[in-house]
């Protein structure tokens, strides 16, 4: 097997290997108390794909066949090991106690929302479950400083230079700029946990909501967000 193909396979299986190392049937996540709301969770099955098995079985295959074999194996493993749990969850879903259910065959897990009583039943009755992870939600206020900025923002280096970073050089951006293409009129959306709009490369290019008057405590453009002039 070529080295890069082996690395690809290892990367594909890494989450499964990491999870199988947990090797416990104890489901020890705390459930929210005094609530009958839906809880978002992931169920990870005890059985996980074996890297040794897959390497041995696919050693003589080409890349396409190897990919198909691994995918089929992991899907079969998920279907087989999740059968009892899925049957139970489908029954509870019909009763309105489970929703938004998805099988994640790559790591042999099921993502869903369920009422707390269903999670308790899962813990008590299905030893084939290795681990249940309860997704915790964090109120936005806990993530922001009093001034509304994101906490723990990394301060900018004091030694800012005009040097073009290696990543930008590697995609040959300077050559494109030299041809006159500099992003004029293009607005790029960024979905992330935060952007430092004071960064020297960004501060002159950040989109501003011109229909919003900054910091007057009023949603001037009536879009549901107060003072969202630059975020
Ligand atoms: Ca607004
Ligand atoms: Ca405003």
User: How would you state the average pLDDT, rounded?
Assistant: 82
- Name every ligand kind in the structure: calcium ion
Helix count? Answer: 7
The count of DSSP E runs of length 2 or more, i.e. the number of strands, is: 4
Topology pattern, helix = H, strand = E = HEHHHEEHEHH
| Total domains | 2
Low-confidence blocks of residues: 1-29
Shape estimate: flat
Beta-strand portion reads 5-15%
Distance between the termini: 48 Å
Structural class: alpha+beta
Radius of gyration: 25 Å
Helix content: 25-40%
Strand order of the largest sheet: 2-3-1-4
| Main beta sheet strand tally, sense and closure | 4 strands, antiparallel
Q: What features would you describe in this structure?
A:
The protein is built from 7 helices and 4 strands. It is α+β, with helices and mostly antiparallel strands and 231 residues long. It folds into 2 domains: 132 residues, no CATH class; 67 residues, no CATH class. A 4-stranded antiparallel beta sheet has the order 2-3-1-4, covered by helices on one side. A hairpin with a 4-residue loop joins strand 2 and strand 3. The chain binds calcium ion (2 copies). One calcium ion (CA) binds next to loops.
Keywords:
231 residues, alpha+beta, four-stranded antiparallel beta sheet, 34% helix, 11% strand, flat, disordered N terminus, binds calcium ion
């Amino acid at each position: 097997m070529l080295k890069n193909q082996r690395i690809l396979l290892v990367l594909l299986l890494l989450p499964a290997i990491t999870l199988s190392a947990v090797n416990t049937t104890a489901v020890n996540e705390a459930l929210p108390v005094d609530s009958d709301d839906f809880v978002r969770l992931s169920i990870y099955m005890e059985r996980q794909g074996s890297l040794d098995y897959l390497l041995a079985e696919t050693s003589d295959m080409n890349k396409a066949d190897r990919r198909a074999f691994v995918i089929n194996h992991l899907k079969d493993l998920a279907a087989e090991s999740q059968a009892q749990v899925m049957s139970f969850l489908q029954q509870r879903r019909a009763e309105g106690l489970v929703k938004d259910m998805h099988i994640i065959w790559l790591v042999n897990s099921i993502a869903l929302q369920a009422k707390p009583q269903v999670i308790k039943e899962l813990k008590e009755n299905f030893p084939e479950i290795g681990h249940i992870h309860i997704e915790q939600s964090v109120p936005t206020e806990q993530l922001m400083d009093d001034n509304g900025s994101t906490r723990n923002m990394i301060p900018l280096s004091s030694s800012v230079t005009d040097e073009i970073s290696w990543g930008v050089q590697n995609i040959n951006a300077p050559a494109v700029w030299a041809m006159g293409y500099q992003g004029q009129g293009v607005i790029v959306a960024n979905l992330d946990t935060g952007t430092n709009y004071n960064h020297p490369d960004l501060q002159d290019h950040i989109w501003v909501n011109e229909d919003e008057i900054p910091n007057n405590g009023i949603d001037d453009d009536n879009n549901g967000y107060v003072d969202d002039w630059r975020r």
